[in-house]
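The data are quoted verbatim for reference:
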Amino acid sequence: MTRARLNLLLALAVAVLGGIAFWEAWRPEPAPPTLGGPSEDEVQAIRIENRRGSLRLERAGEHWVIAGTPPLPAAKGRVERLLSLARARIERDYPADRAAPEALGLKPPAATVVWEPAGFRVRIGGTDPVEGLRYVELGDRIALVPAYVTEAALGRPEDFVSRRLLPAGAEPVEIRTPQVHLLRSEGRWRVEGDDEVSQDRIQSLLDEWRHARAIAVERLADGKTPEGLPEWQVRLADGRTLRFLLEDREGQPTRLMRPDLGLAYEISTRLQKALAELPAPPEPADAGEEGDTEAADMPAETEVESR
């Protein structure tokens, strides 16, 4: 074999080996295994049983509710975490008969979750003492998954209730508290009994209501509320009127109660004030400032465009 041919063969070998090395370096990693449950779009309901209670979540158009009488609006974030749990990443797995279920916290389980209509079911156990992964029984196998993906399934039923004071997408047309009465008429907002309210102050109160969230939500004991509490009302564009009762006692959390839902929303002192009344007007401009100050002394418009 001539030297030229030998050099050519060596060059080809180097090229082939280089190509293989390049492919190994850039070859995409295979997708990690998952629990293999249904996709989010396929799920219409989720059933949960855990050591703190049980509930059933049902899809209602674009939103989710907690089944019952009456149905309660569900917390969007918790529902999304339950949907993702069905396809959680598996770190490793092994046959279920390799370990006693009691040792893994699976007898009884910490929680059982069923996604419908597929009937896909998992049982959630304890955590691995070394890596902190959570044991999940999946048919005849035990999977270990990141513990954080299972936390939503371990909460109280009350934890699944939305903390929003107004339903998602709701459009108020009237707000009434003992301190203020706002009314939308012919597409414009006005303040009853006050002709000197600025547009910014009205809009600020409306925005507080649209985005208001509670610190926590609890069920009313026996579904009853104390008598004589101040009442707040919010009428919505769909015809519903939401009735809130304010419980504000010294040394106790401030709560807004919804008797029709049997719920109490704990709110901050700041939010209570922001929802109950218009914000204070801005400080008047200094007399020494440049420009015409007469406009600053004139009453502002009493109506604002509704959003």
Observations:
- The first strand starts at residue 45 and ends at 50.
- The radius of gyration is 30 Å.
- Residues 40-160 form one domain.
